[in-house]
Specification:
This protein is about 65% helix and about 0% strand. The protein is mainly alpha-helical. The chain has 2 helices and no strands. It has a domain of about 45 residues. The protein is elongated, with a radius of gyration of 31 Å. The N and C termini lie far apart (about 90 Å).
């Protein structure tokens, strides 16, 4: 057994072979021109979806807060007058 303080272990090899590789597919995707309008539209749609879902979550939270406030007020009125 060779023992050394400063010897590094050999790097592991990465030999991944994809199962479904279509050779012409890479060339097609690289030749496609970058369409700024299409990219901007996709980005805008994505941003709108996130914004709407966030808005829906906030409105649910606000409704819950109002329900809790109303219940606390009703409980206070019930305890105070009965």
């Amino acid at each position: 057994m060779n023992f050394s303080f400063f010897q590094r272990p050999e790097v592991r090899k990465y030999n991944y072979i994809p199962q479904f590789y279509v050779e012409g597919e890479d060339k097609k995707s690289n030749n496609k021109e970058f369409d700024r309008d299409e990219f901007a539209e996709r980005l805008h749609r994505s941003w709108n979806k996130k914004r709407q879902s966030r808005r829906k979550g906030i409105s649910n939270f606000k409704s819950l807060i109002w329900i809790i406030i109303i219940l606390v007020v009703l409980l206070y009125v019930y305890v105070k007058f009965l």
